[in-house]
Design goal:
Layout lengths: L2 H16 L6 E11 L5 E2 L7 H4 L6 E12 L4 E5 L5 E10 L2 E8 L4 E8 L3 E5 L7 E9 L2
Parallel strand pairs: 2-3
Antiparallel strand pairs: 1-3, 1-9, 4-5, 5-6, 6-7, 8-9
């Protein structure tokens, strides 16, 4: 290898090493409906969430949508909600075993940033309660 080839190889290595890695983050997103009315009921698809949902003041839980998303940092995916609104989900940061996600509801002018670890999930209320019912998003990273 000539000196010039060696210098070019080193320069290329430095340039590629300096470029940030763009890892896509797989997310499992569910839209669920919680209700204070009627008999206690848990949608069987939500059984893995039972421990997180049980302490909440709602007695009936139903899954209305489920999506598997893969997001690069800064990319937003939109998830429609049953009440006609849309939730925007954006990966803000990925660091080691944690990911910070922003959930935004343009119709309500609200944004929430949530950080979760690999294998964990969050339950986040995304609509105000109306007639004893509210909608929630659950987001799990690296499901």
């Amino acid at each position: 290898m000539t000196r010039r080839s060696f210098i070019l190889a080193i320069a290329a290595t430095v340039l590629f090493a300096a470029a940030p890695a763009r890892a896509d983050v797989p997310l499992h997103v569910r839209v669920i409906k919680g209700s204070r009315q009627g008999p206690p009921k848990m949608d069987p698809r939500l059984e893995p969430l039972k421990r997180q949902l049980s302490p909440l003041a709602y007695v009936s839980w139903q899954q209305t949508d489920e999506r598997k998303l893969t997001l690069a940092k800064g990319r937003t995916e939109f998830v429609p909600l049953p009440d006609g609104d849309t939730a925007g989900i954006t990966v803000q940061e990925e660091r080691g075993n944690t990911v910070t996600i922003e959930v935004a509801l343009a119709q309500r002018n609200t944004q929430s940033r949530l950080t979760i670890e690999r294998g964990q999930r969050i339950v986040h209320q995304v609509t105000a309660e109306k007639n004893g019912t509210a909608f929630f998003l659950t987001v799990a990273a690296w499901p």
